[in-house]
Design brief:
Trna Endonuclease, Chain: A, domain 1, five-stranded mixed sheet, alpha+beta, globular, two-stranded antiparallel sheet
Length: 182
């Protein structure tokens, strides 16, 4: 009888140990996922700062607002549905949605938004009579990308963008960009 009880005790101990290890692994996975979300949020904020600094170097450009990106427990600020940055240049408004990616995918494309986000940006553009552009930073770091594209929203009708399609919008000078768009 004692050997049977020892065997049952050993099985219970091993089972409890395995369950404990699995729970610890799941907790670590959640922490890693949260870190990734936090890292992406930090990169997004750093890229927005880069774009703000770039535009504010130009005279007569004013930053009107920046979206807070507040989201918690399924609740978000209504402003989150609009482009990240709102500016004026010579009293003409324009808005920029910022997207940083470390590189183009193997097929030379990036995913930049979902269909509902594109719809929200188009709605903002129409209702506010404000041109919307998508700033796409590629490579380098979020606060100093190697490449910058400023693409008019009307040219981005899909959630993805091919490098060949957006190459004409590669920015070499913000001053030239401002002169061309407004």
């Amino acid at each position: 009888m004692i050997p049977v009880l020892l065997l049952i005790g050993t099985i219970c101990f091993v089972s409890a140990f395995i369950l404990y290890k699995n729970q610890t692994s799941k907790t670590k996975e959640v922490l890693n996922e949260n870190t990734t979300v936090d890292e992406n949020t930090q990169k997004g904020k750093a890229f927005e700062e880069y774009v703000i600094d770039l535009f504010l170097k130009e005279h007569q450009v004013q930053l009107l607002s920046r979206v807070s990106d507040y989201y918690k427990n399924g609740k978000y600020a209504q402003d989150n549905t609009t482009p990240d940055l709102k500016f004026t240049y010579n009293n003409k408004p324009f808005a920029i949605e910022c997207k940083y990616r470390s590189s183009f995918a193997a097929n030379n494309s990036i995913t930049w938004a979902s269909d509902y986000q594109i719809s929200n940006y188009k709605k903002f553009e129409t209702e506010n009579n404000t041109k919307v552009f998508v700033a796409i930073g590629i490579g380098g770091t979020a606060d100093a990308p190697l490449e910058l594209y400023l693409v008019p929203l009307y040219r981005l009708t899909k959630p993805f963008a091919q490098k060949d399609y957006i190459k004409e919008f590669k920015v070499t000078s913000v001053k030239d960009f401002l002169g061309a768009i407004l």
